[in-house]
Amino acid sequence: MNLVLLCGGIGGSKLALGLYQQFPHANLSIIVNTADDVDILGLHVSPDLDTLIYTLAGLANRRQGWGIQGDTFQALDMLKMYGHEAWFRLGDRDIATHLARTHWLRQGLTLSETADRQRRFLNVSAQILPMTNDPVRSSIETHDGWIPFQDYFVRLGYTVEPTGVRLDGIDSARAPTEVFESIARADRIIVAPSNPVVSIGPILAVPGLRDALVESSAPIIAVSPIVGSQAVTGPAAQLMKAVGMPASACGVGIAYQDFLDLLVVDASDSQAQTDAALMGIEARATNTIMSDARSKRRLARFVVEASLS
Amino acid sequence: MNLVLLCGGIGGSKLALGLYQQFPHANLSIIVNTADDVDILGLHVSPDLDTLIYTLAGLANRRQGWGIQGDTFQALDMLKMYGHEAWFRLGDRDIATHLARTHWLRQGLTLSETADRQRRFLNVSAQILPMTNDPVRSSIETHDGWIPFQDYFVRLGYTVEPTGVRLDGIDSARAPTEVFESIARADRIIVAPSNPVVSIGPILAVPGLRDALVESSAPIIAVSPIVGSQAVTGPAAQLMKAVGMPASACGVGIAYQDFLDLLVVDASDSQAQTDAALMGIEARATNTIMSDARSKRRLARFVVEASLS
User: Fold this and answer.
1) Alpha carbon of B74: minimum distance to chain A alpha carbons (Å)
2) Which residues of chain B does A44 touch, with a Cβ-Cβ cutoff of 8 Å?
3) Residue A309's pLDDT is what?
4) Which of A156, B26, B71, B256 would disulfide-bridge B260, Cβ 3.0–4.6 Å?
5) What is the tens place of the pLDDT at every residue in A47-81?
């Protein structure tokens, strides 16, 4: 069975882990957002790739969702002595990842090749596919102007109101061949409950990628990261409003409507199915809150085994 | 009082600390070897600069002589998971130094400017002067061919026999203006008990630098790193033999004879003064083994206050 997952960081990685553990014999290919990559002191940091790979490798810090379990911050403490602002919390073991990646990139590897090397060294058997090897960077518009995504997300802790989202570099970005190949051979395509604007949005915006989904004969199932009018985690609701999408599960369905076969909404979200029906979106409810290994695997089974009309 | 010290890594930093503590009101300028700088995973590592600055800042690991007291090795452990050989023991806090320096260099600062910024952030009041901002790299000839200095020194732990030493880039290297200025205004110039071939040798080989010492009217005092036929630490004796210098305190004096006013030899080295006298080198004996703060300061006082004939 060929499974494809479109995935951002923390929320998406939970479903990725569920799929990885529930279907160990499937060919799992994960297309990952790279628009929140950031240069920190010359290091190429790929937060979504790392969160995903650390999660699948069993290294992730589960409580905070990002970084490595038990990591220390000696280098960051010392960097503060050198005047570094240090709002991006780079752990010591995490820095090793960025050093290795940046070194490999400088040796001429593509980002895809570094991701493949990284996951192999960490014994992850899923195929990890950055959405592009070209630089695409999200920026967020605020009342004080445009700021890079990580400034909004990490430095400001998404406490300022976003009024727009921009994807620099997206028009000239190309998806690697393996991304299109994974979609072409997919038996089922799953859109993780990741931020539809800054995680899934950039993936869909890579030229040709959305068309490939529209043309795919495989069922495409999305899990809403929105329950009621709130995101399970993160600033998805605010960012959806900023780009004019309804901040609701139905809004997620609308954003994906041209390629979506089934929208999975949370069982507690009584409005979601009604709204979806009005919009002509097939929706089904289940518990989408992945609080432990069991609930991750259960949701993975639900999205893979859901029969479609 | 304007003091200038020519300095390599571990041995030289001990005398630097003695001078720094014994003469807190002096203008101390330290000209530092950069020929054993090395690129590790894209990081610009300057072992002698860091050993010196960490020592003066009170951060150095005194037992091993290099690195930072209490440093951890989380990043290096993780780098091993990514296939990195990890023979160069980068500590986590030490990595912060290399990240900051490499970042500053990429922003367009010279190595001198990064060293000045580094020592200021770490509250070191001495002037730290890399011998050059141009890339000069020592290579060691062995029976298996030429290898970079750090391969010989760290990876192989100087267990192979050196048969030659080469300084790549030295002919086109230029000393920064501040180096010449410090020599021009010096009241006394001290050559640290550092390796005369791969620490002091590269400094003297920077075009114009040796001439500036020859022409200086300031007394120039060198402390021998060799006692009897052995180096106090490191491979100085083997490397002196490799380049045809007598591996003795007198050999050190001969190497510096054109600019030297006084050679300080260890009191236990009964041959040294006799040999020096035969060669027409003025030598004086004292305890040169700097095992604690007191002996560092005592030697510093000796070299600064020695009256010359």
Assistant:
1) 5
2) none
3) 66
4) B256
5) 999 999 999 999 998 888 889 999 999 999 999 99
Determine, for residues B100 and A41 on separate chains, whether the beta-carbon distance falls below 8 Å. Answer: yes
Chain B residues inside the 8 Å CB shell of A103: 41-42
Taking CA–CA distances from B84, the nearest residue in chain A reads: A100
Q: What is the mean pLDDT of each run of 10 residues along chain B (309 residues)?
A: 95 96 98 97 97 97 88 97 94 98 98 98 98 98 96 94 97 98 98 97 98 97 93 90 94 96 95 93 96 96 89
Q: Which three-class secondary structure state does DSSP give residue A132?
A: coil
The confidence score (pLDDT) of residue A286 equals 96
State which fold the B2-60+112-136+170-305 domain adopts: Rossmann fold (3.40.50)
Q: How far is A69 from chain B (nearest CA, A)?
A: 12
Residues of B in contact with A74 (CB under 8 A): 71-72, 74, 91-93, 96
**A41 contacts B42? CB cut-off 8 A:** no
In chain A, where are the structural domains located?
2-136+170-305
Distance from CA of A30 to the nearest CA of B (A): 21
CATH no., domain A2-136+170-305: 3.40.50.10680
Distances (CA, A) of B228 to B249, B266, B272: 7, 9, 7
Please give, rounded to a whole number of angstroms, the shortest distance from the CA of A289 to a CA of chain B: 32
Alpha-carbon dihedral angle through residues B48, B52, B54, B55, given to the nearest 10 degrees: 140
Residue A148 CA to residue A168 CA, distance in Å, equals 10
- Indicate yes or no: CB of A76 within 8 angstroms of CB of B96: yes
> What does the block give as tokens for B305?
């206050």
Which residues numbered 1-60 in B keep a CB inside 8 Å of some CB on A? 41-43
How does pLDDT run across A154-208, given as a tens digit for each residue? 999 999 999 999 999 999 999 999 999 999 999 999 999 999 999 999 999 999 9
B118 contacts A82? CB cut-off 8 A: yes
Pairs of CB atoms within 8 A across A/B: 98
